[in-house]
Amino acid sequence: MAHLLYAKEELLPQSTFSAGGGPEAALPPPPPAAALKPPSSEPSFLIGDIGGTHMRFWVVPCVAPCYPTPAQASFATSYATASFANVVDAFTTLRQDLAQHNVHESSIARCTLAVCGPVIDGRAVCLGPSMGPTGWVIDERVAAATLGIAPEGKCRIINDFVAVGLALPLVRHAAHVVHPGDGIDDDAPMACIGPGTGLGECLCIP
């Protein structure tokens, strides 16, 4: 188990962004429906990334080991954050889209949402450029209720770079590009800097 020592995120200046969104706007859209796995009644995870420019969501199977890949997704979508007045509107649209793709609420065993702000007691205030002057308040209980997920410990909100830090030990040799360097030590401390809508930073000690 990795020990995450440090994670933070800073908003980049508004001048960083073009009319089309932040640097992450260049990321590809979700895969077409034909590339997704058929919906299943088997237990699934709903995972999401709620950023200041985009929101992305996937439904993946509960398998062991629990390291699903995008190729295993039965549902994937993304929205422009600026399309919604608040996060409840976004969750309402997501719930409707899940239903249209035959993803039943009862099949979602767990939900984890990575958000672009600090999380305290299951609640975050996210201050992305598209989230208004006071930001979006994202709460685990409100998220569970709006998405129709049973609230008893099944919905969790975590900071997005905490999520990145926890995932770093899973990125093994094949995914590494070293500039410069003679080799990879998967057991060494790992750091990540992510310029998106905000500038995220984390340090992970395996």
What does this structure look like?
The chain has helices spanning 87-100, 140-147, 160-167, and strands at 3-11, 44-50, 54-61, 75-80, 108-115, 119-120, 123-126, 136-139, 155-159, 190-195, 198-205. By secondary structure, the protein is α+β, with helices and mostly antiparallel strands. The strands form 3 sheets. It has a 5-stranded mixed beta sheet with strand order 4-3-2-5-9. A hairpin with a 2-residue loop joins strand 6 and strand 7 (123-126). Helix 1 packs parallel to helix 2 (140-147). The model is unreliable at 11-28 (pLDDT under 50).
Beta fraction: 25-35%
Shape: globular
The description of the largest β-sheet is: 5 strands, mixed
Order of strands, widest sheet:
4-3-2-5-9
As a percent range, the share of helical residues equals 10-25%
Task: Map the helices and strands.
Elements: E1 3-11, E2 44-50, E3 54-61, E4 75-80, H1 87-100, E5 108-115, E6 119-120, E7 123-126, E8 136-139, H2 140-147, E9 155-159, H3 160-167, E10 190-195, E11 198-205
Parallel strand pairs: 2-5, 5-9
Antiparallel strand pairs: 1-11, 2-3, 3-4, 6-7, 7-8, 10-11
Helix pairs in contact: 1-2
